[in-house]
Inverse folding.
């Protein structure tokens, strides 16, 4: 796996594909391979095919250093503290948890597979199939996809948000999406982000929707839904379709927002 990742990183015998290299390196890193961990740290430290990210670099160098990798130990001297664990390194939600999240919503394909073109219905079926794997309600997943792209896997926004779930390049990279116009890969990236937001905002759908539209940083900065007309309208549409403001979440995915207590003390909208 490391050899394949290195080939894609450098374009040795295959077309260079940094996104696929990151995916392979991350899988090998999760399995405990220190060379993969070091190589990922190097990519992020130097911006080799990915945006430069010192916190992410420090995270992977730290993993490699813990296994005795000498060069990783040296690199840590030049970097700040490690960043949060990336999504690709987290254990999958056990199937029983995903199933319980779905059963708590009492949802089936019929409750969200509403009228639309054959192409739109195909995308809805994909969302319904994949959402439980991420502990995300199919109804919420479909609501987000409708609001984002009207279920168009080829959609591109003026801000270069791409595909069915409208992932900007930074979010696509963050959740290991190398082919944003591939419907399944795009949906998995969007669902990974929703799972993270649900954990970060502890299941508050208003904040999750606002974070998906404007970014979690904006929600923290304004301590609630940002005062952007687009975001406020977006949140209303999601709540109208999802019909609840609470959603099950996995607290292991990430720590809660440092502003969450203050946000909830105010009116979030």
């Amino acid at each position: 796996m490391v050899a394949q990742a290195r080939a894609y990183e450098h374009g040795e015998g295959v077309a260079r594909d940094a996104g696929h290299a990151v995916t392979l390196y991350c899988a090998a890193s999760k399995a405990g391979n220190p060379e993969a961990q070091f190589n990922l740290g190097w990519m992020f430290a130097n911006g080799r095919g990915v945006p430069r990210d010192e916190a992410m670099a420090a995270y992977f160098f730290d993993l490699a250093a813990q296994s005795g990798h000498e060069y990783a130990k040296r690199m840590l001297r030049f970097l700040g503290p490690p960043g949060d664990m990336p999504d690709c390194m987290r254990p999958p939600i056990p199937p029983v948890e995903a199933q319980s999240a779905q059963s708590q919503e009492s949802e089936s394909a019929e409750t969200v597979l509403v009228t639309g073109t054959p192409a739109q219905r195909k995308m809805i079926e994909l969302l319904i199939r994949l959402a439980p794997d991420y502990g995300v309600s199919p109804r919420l997943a479909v609501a987000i996809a409708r609001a984002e792209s009207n279920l168009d896997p080829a959609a591109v926004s003026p801000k270069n948000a791409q595909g069915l779930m409208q992932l900007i390049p930074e979010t696509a990279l963050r959740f290991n999406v190398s082919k944003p116009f591939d419907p399944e890969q795009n949906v998995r990236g969007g669902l990974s982000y929703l799972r993270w937001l649900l954990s970060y905002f502890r299941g508050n759908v208003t904040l999750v929707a606002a974070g998906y539209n404007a970014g979690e940083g904006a929600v923290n900065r304004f301590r609630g839904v940002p005062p952007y007309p687009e975001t406020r309208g977006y949140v209303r549409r999601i709540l109208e379709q999802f019909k609840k403001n609470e959603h099950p979440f996995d607290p292991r995915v990430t720590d809660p927002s440092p502003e969450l207590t203050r946000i909830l003390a105010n009116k979030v909208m």
